Model the fold of this input.
Amino acid sequence: MKVILTEKITKLGNIGDTVEVKTGFARNYLLPNGKAMRWTRENVALFEAKKAELQARQDAAKKTAESNVDAVKNAKLYMIRQAGDTGQLYGSVSTRDIARMLKEIAGVNVESAQVLLGSPIKSIGAFDTKIALHPDVIVPVKVYVAQTQDEIEALVAGKVLTFGTKKVEESAEEATEAKAEEKVAEKAEEKAADAE
Done:
């Protein structure tokens, strides 16, 4: 379906661009949310008449987004969740959880679609993500997920958390590496002895 964009959309185009999109995307997202209008000769003329107004609205939205950058950057996104012995969460932290927390902590209204997380967080740790306050204003943030406030403080300090079976696995790996290093040292000694 051919549409005229009424606002800038990441990976699609700028205001006034005529783009070809899938019919479902246009009918279910672009048209109902006022982000585009169907391409017809009448709508092209209508868009040209409203172009200055739409551009002014876009600029105002960008200024509002820029004014919220500091609030989002300084927001402490600390999430306390229950997890198993291995650090795997019972459930996950989704874009909706992060958007809700930003609204509570920073007072910034963010839709879950504006949180560029990729896949949900399913384990304890510190995670980098981005918040798209506007297509031109993307703010990097760090999300800390832990079981207790003490663990969060440790993550913020840059420490690596270890858990029940992970400690065992890590110590087993360290033991294997130590044995391998010993064998290499023994072989080097044997070669040195043979050379003499």
